Amino acid sequence: MDGCLRAALRKKETRKSISKEIRTGIWNKQNKRCALCGKPLNLSNAQLDHIIPWDFVGDELNDNYQILCARCNKQKNNRIATNIKQIISRMINEY
Question: What is the rounded distance in angstroms from the CA atom of residue 32 to the CA atom of residue 13?
């Protein structure tokens, strides 16, 4: 959470452009599936998403991206409760 607070303080007003290589790398890391529902995706229908919404931390966190299907991305929107649940789940899985 300390990193999130620092990112919020450094947040820029404009979004940074994410390269195709980074997007492809995230897609491959997730086994070409939606991070939330597991639906198989190809690069043309995969949507890059900020795990913690851009409104809160911008692009200041390096590992704050995931690939979602259109349905999950629309449902998630920028609701912080959904995002906090994902962060906690990721922290548990890392330890």
Answer: 31
User: How far is residue 67's CA from residue 33's CA, in Å, rounded to a whole number?
Assistant: 8
pLDDT tier at 15, thresholds 50, 70, 90: low
Question: 38 is written with which tokens?
Answer: 């597991």
* SS3 track for 20-84: HHHHHHHHHHCCCECCCCCCECCCCCCEEEECCCHHHHCCCCCCCEEEECHHHHHHHCCCHHHHH
Q: Over the stretch 26-82, which tens digit does the pLDDT of each residue have?
A: 999 999 999 999 999 999 999 998 887 766 665 666 788 899 999 999 988 766 656
